[in-house]
């Protein structure tokens, strides 16, 4: 048993956490990201952390990686050249979509243009019917003609999306075999494999996006894999998925769309782990990085999955951790709109050139500059590895302050107030608008900039307690260490929830269980490390959309079959009550999709790593002037977090500095260090 390492690549920094699986020795690392080649920051960072802490990289057993490669490629529209093969008469389905405007009241904003131009949407004859039977055989001459057009266009990838292929994928498989034989260098994505469930537009969109991303992910994995093979030759490499589980490099190549929320999902997994260890069942997470803020709601120590997501303007119907993202990070730029009002974000200075205070060429005022001006952000980051220039920050804010006719510090506070208001509004969307009272939750800020903004967010929402994890800026990397291997299986079968449905329900569940067992065998996961979760997408007959209802979970597939439908019906009613506040007990209910989540445990030693306390006795290392709310600066003691003792209590004002984040403790607030090194903060109203 050796080292396991989590690596999270963000827009501004790349974070590392290494834990020895036996001794629980833990080390952290952080370095600037390299957006032009994300793999370089990973390879360089591994060598740095190995040299600093005397880690033998040959003893690394596992490396888990959160990546933004697919997301950035989709946002920036720099994927591969893609073709689409579909049934005759359906080539424009991607463009027709749902005929809904992206913003209801903006008549000038168009929906995202399809990733495949009409000239590369190719049609073939043949048809599968709604019961899965073949109505007309596949026209292989049309397939050959499509292959020639793809050859002429020089496409890199092809999406194959046929009607009702989620019930019968034979025609799609025939097309795959034919294309692979003629064009072996073209990667193929079949809708019957990417998203085998009903709703053509969402299925076609997901498959096309997957094909679009495959050339980019292939190139990235080739480059990263070659470097890691030399550095950590004995390690198993995994990539995080949007559903909060890990997958192999081979699966990431085949299904890059599953990594759309890779990093944020890892943060939520770590937050769930922290909520269990601290016995705080209900938590709202606030993950603030350099570019964005990611928000999630944890209820009863579980994060909800969603099957209706939007990434870069495209609807994606795949299991994802329910994370809401807004453009509010440390690099978010303050600017004046045409109406003369001050706005913050979503434009970001990113890692290059970064905020003005980074001294890398940035000149526009950002949230990080504002925090530095107010004294809340430490002037040195990464334990002295990066120095911030407060004079450059003030210079960037001078034009903004002059235009507003206020002092620079007041302008900086105004920028913070705006970004906090944006965060509060987003949190209300995932809590109040879904029937949850934020006052019943604990706020958990993390990310490099999360603790800087958490207190005013909590105050606005009426939250009285916050948990700042031991390494808040590296929590996503920690989440990669506690994540399981995970795979999802789905079958679409509309089933009326009547007594006669039990045979169909149990047969479909058993079939999905068999698929999960086969996957476990392929991945080499022992029976002791396997677990299953069965859920059903259910709705009242006549509803347009369904609710996902968990109905069973356990470590063994040899479960007792369902013996009555009343239990399933009541589970749906309970979920409907939670989401909508009511249910109609007399209305007929139907199942639309059956889902199995297969989880393979990665870490056998579940004991948390203990915080490493250094000499210092919990005394302040220095003082500095800090502007809190109220307009006056306060001489504030500055503490180094790794010198704080377990059980030590601090009363604000105070600044707590560490490798990966700065935690301002506002006047009157009390922070206590718990046995696991978390800061438990009582917010004074």
TrEMBL record:
GO cellular component: cytosol
Residue ranges occupied by any Hydantoinase/oxoprolinase N-terminal domain in the UniProt entry: 5-181
Residues covered by the Hydantoinase A/oxoprolinase domain: 203-487
Listed GO MF terms: 5-oxoprolinase (ATP-hydrolyzing) activity
SUPFAM superfamilies: Actin-like ATPase domain
Chain positions covered by the region annotation Disordered: 603-625
A biological-process GO annotation: glutathione metabolic process
Residues covered by the Acetophenone carboxylase-like C-terminal domain: 501-674
Classification via Pfam families: Hydant_A_C (PF19278), Hydant_A_N (PF05378), Hydantoinase_A (PF01968)
Protein name as annotated: Hydantoinase/oxoprolinase family protein
Source species of the chain: Roseovarius spongiae
């Amino acid at each position: 048993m050796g080292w396991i390492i989590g690596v999270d690549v963000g827009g501004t920094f790349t974070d590392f956490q290494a834990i020895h699986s036996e001794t629980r020795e833990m080390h952290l690392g952080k370095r600037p990201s390299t957006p032009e080649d994300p793999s370089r920051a990973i390879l360089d960072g591994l060598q740095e952390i190995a040299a600093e802490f005397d880690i033998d990289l040959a003893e690394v057993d596992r490396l888990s990686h959160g990546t933004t490669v697919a997301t950035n490629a989709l946002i920036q529209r720099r994927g591969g050249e893609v073709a689409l093969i579909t049934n005759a008469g359906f080539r424009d389905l991607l463009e027709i979509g749902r005929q809904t405007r992206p913003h209801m009241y903006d008549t000038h904003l168009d929906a995202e243009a399809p990733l495949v131009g009409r000239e590369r949407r190719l049609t073939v004859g043949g048809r599968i019917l709604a019961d899965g039977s073949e109505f007309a055989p596949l026209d292989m001459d049309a397939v050959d003609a499509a292959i020639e057009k793809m050859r002429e266009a020089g496409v890199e990838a092809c999406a194959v999306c046929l009607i009702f292929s989620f019930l019968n994928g034979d025609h799609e498989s025939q097309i795959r075999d034919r294309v692979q034989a003629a064009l072996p260098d073209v990667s193929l994505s079949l809708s019957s494999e990417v998203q085998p469930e009903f709703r053509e537009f969402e299925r076609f969109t997901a498959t096309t996006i997957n094909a679009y991303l495959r050339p980019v992910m292939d190139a990235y994995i080739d480059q990263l894999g070659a470097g890691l093979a030399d550095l950590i030759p004995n390690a198993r490499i995994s990539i995080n998925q949007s559903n909060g589980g890990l997958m192999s490099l081979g699966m990431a190549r085949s299904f890059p769309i599953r990594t759309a929320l890779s990093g944020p999902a890892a943060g939520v997994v770590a937050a769930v782990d922290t909520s269990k260890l601290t016995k705080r069942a209900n938590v709202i997470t606030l993950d603030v990085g350099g570019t964005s803020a990611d928000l999630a709601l944890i209820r009863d120590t579980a994060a909800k999955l969603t099957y209706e997501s939007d990434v870069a303007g495209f609807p994606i119907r795949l299991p994802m951790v329910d994370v809401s993202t807004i453009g509010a990070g440390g690099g978010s730029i303050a600017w004046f709109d045409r109406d003369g009002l001050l706005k913050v974000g979503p434009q970001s200075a990113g890692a290059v050139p970064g905020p003005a205070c980074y001294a890398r060429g940035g000149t526009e005022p950002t949230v990080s500059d504002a925090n530095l001006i107010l004294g809340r952000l430490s002037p040195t980051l990464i334990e002295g590895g990066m120095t911030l220039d407060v004079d450059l920050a003030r210079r960037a804010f001078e034009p903004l302050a002059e235009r507003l006719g206020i002092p620079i510090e007041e302008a900086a506070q105004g920028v913070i107030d705006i970004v906090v208001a944006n965060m509060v509004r987003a949190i209300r969307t995932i809590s109040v608008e879904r029937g949850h009272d934020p006052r019943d939750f604990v706020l958990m800020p993390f990310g490099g900039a999360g603790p800087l903004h958490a207190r005013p967010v909590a105050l606005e929402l009426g939250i009285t307690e916050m948990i700042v994890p031991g390494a808040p800026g590296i929590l996503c990397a920690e989440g990669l260490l506690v994540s399981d291997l995970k795979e999802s299986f789905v079958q679409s079968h509309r089933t009326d929830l009547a007594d006669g449905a039990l045979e169909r329900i149990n047969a479909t569940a058993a079939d999905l269980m068999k698929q999960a067992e086969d996957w476990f065998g392929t991945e080499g996961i022992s029976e002791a490390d396997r677990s299953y979760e069965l859920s059903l997408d259910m709705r009242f007959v006549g509803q347009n959309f369904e609710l996902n209802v968990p109905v069973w979970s356990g470590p063994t597939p040899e479960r007792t079959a369902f013996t009555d439908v009343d239990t399933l019906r009541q589970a749906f009613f309970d979920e409907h009550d939670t989401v909508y506040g009511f249910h109609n007990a007399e209305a007929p209910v139907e199942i639309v999709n059956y889902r199995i989540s297969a989880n393979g445990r990665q870490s056998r030693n579940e004991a948390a790593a203990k915080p490493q306390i250094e000499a210092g006795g919990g005394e302040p290392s220095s003082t500095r002037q800090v502007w809190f709310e109220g307009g006056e600066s306060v001489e504030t003691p500055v503490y180094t977090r790794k010198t704080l003792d377990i059980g030590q209590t601090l009363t604000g004002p105070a600044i707590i500095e560490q490798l990966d984040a700065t935690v301002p403790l506002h006047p009157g607030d009390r922070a206590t260090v718990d046995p696991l090194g978390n800061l438990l903060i009582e917010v004074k109203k």
